[in-house]
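haha ok so turns out i had the wrong file open the whole time. this is the CORRECT one, sorry everyone. sequence first:
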Amino acid sequence: MPAVLRTVTHAVLPALLLAMSIAGSAHAGEPAQATLPEHLLTDGPHVFRDATGLHARWLCAGKVVAQEARPGEHGSALLPAVCGYPRPLRLLPPAAASSAVLPMPSRVAALSDIHGQFGLLRRLLRAHGIIDQDERWSFGDGALVVGGDVFDRGPQVTEALWLLYGLQQQAAAAGGAVHVVLGNHEAMVLYGDLRYVNPKYLETATRLGRPYPALFGPDSVLGQWLRTRPQMLRLGDTLFLHGGIAPENLDLALAIDATNAAYDGSLGLPKAQLKADPATARLYDGKRSPIWYRGYFNGELDTAAVGTLVGKLGLQRIVVGHTTIGEVASFHDGRIIAIDSAIKRGKSGQLLFIEGDSLSRGLIDGRREPLPALQEVPDDKE
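then structure:
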């Protein structure tokens, strides 16, 4: 039986004026000053694992709440909802990454670039029957793919991560799957580039006594889970990744499992080290790597070149986020499907559905409509 964590201490740490980095800072690494009212300083849980057991921490309206436990006989533990994420959690022992080359399920839903917009994520998934009103999996043997960038910008990153963590367990029990593909903002946070972190999280980290990246370190439950997420996922003849495959990086996509292992093994290493090491430089390059590439949309590759690239990979299509289109749409004769529907703006969002040979998109109000084919990328200046 899993162990239930018990509260052992409540601590209030002194309020601090923290230098906080936000999007739009004048220089990378030079954060702007910001303060937040106490009632907005709510986050968690952050759970850490060591030889003595599990150590959970929340920040509830500025107050630190701590709970401790030893896992049960199967290595799992039940964590009650305290604040932050609103549902109880079943915490699993660390697990190895599995292959990211899988058959295509009968139905797939995909979205990307959540950027801390937990409310919109939940609303979209409910509207299309992927979760029920209690945030329980209701998509049966279908698969949900998240194409990266859960982190940064918005105020509920932790809640979004825990929702996906729990849904992955529930989906597996129902014969389905949840796949979270990592994006450039996951990499940035873990190697300490905090330019886009919501100010709330840097204050949270200070009060919990760790730098923000260390909240997702290799000793944390979420950090261990993130280090088993793929950079690329192939379902049947469809490749999912955050940015895209540049022509010179075809070998990375052809050896998906090796590429994913290299990426997972390097998450959280210093940025300078990642860029200097030939074994990891291509995984993190700011313009050409799979988590950053925009060549399908910026004019670098025309439709013929995209068709050649997709053909060399033995694919029907590549599904990507990263480049904000504002809607889910197809490009290059359906070879590229863009799924960054601007959820990051906190106003609306869309889902891609793949059901056999049929592709459609799901709107925020639950309606479905055919997938439009676009020739040009909308001008995204928001």
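The first helix runs from residue 118 to 127.
again sry for the mixup
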